[in-house]
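Table S4 entry, Chromosome segregation ATPase.
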Amino acid sequence: MADDTNDNNTNPSDDPDTVLRELKKQAEYGKLFAATLTKDAAAIEGAVKELNKNRDDIDKNEKAYAAGDFLKKFADLRSRVDDKWPCLRRVLEDKADLADLVIRTYRDDILQARAKLEEITEHLTAAQRELALRTRELADKQEYLNSLMNLPAALATQLTTLTALDKKVQDASQDPLRTFEAYATADEIIRQFEEELFIPTTDEFHKLVFAKWGDVVRTQRALAKAQNKVSTLTGEQSTAEQTVADLTKDRIAELLRRWTAALLRAATQSADEEVPEWATSTSP
């Protein structure tokens, strides 16, 4: 009885070389997977250590917070101030309303200064985005202009390459055994003409270069304007930050300064109002 086995019908997956390649891939994958697991395990271990440290810190801070008894202490402090407040207003007598006005005006000045700082910061952020955009735009336009300026040299290089390929076509076409080589090489030359080569006329090249150079000049001008705007707003932001810092550095000292100035103005106005009529008369 004839053997039904036919070597030509061997399953490709049973080919020894194929099986060997699969085993090698599995081994490589196993190593990579093991390395990934090791890396992940190390990361998880580090995270667990950090979480344990955080948990210990939480316990420590919880005890410190409880020991501080902050709610009661702050409540007691506020209660003492609330009890003292009416007495202080009575002592100020007729100047109590002036005192409230000084404090209210001071707080309004702080709010206005902070609002101005926030507004300037928003404008600065927008200006910085515009500057980044103009910077990228200039880089792109300059890169394109540079590629045009390098076009003569690039075309000379491409011409040398294609001339060499053309010679190969001519040589290979003389040998029947190299017909496909000649065909494939000719196809490559055609592909480069269709996909890679850019060969404008002299007039087109002149117009294109000057047009793109004009784009670079205009973008550079826009960039300079954006840079100037950022510089101006940065200075305004620094000034606004300093204003807020000066107003809030020592609130009590600032209020005392304003209170003294308010009392001086009030005293001056009172003196003017008390001048007798005969002292201002111009009649003989």
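The longest helix spans residues 96-149.
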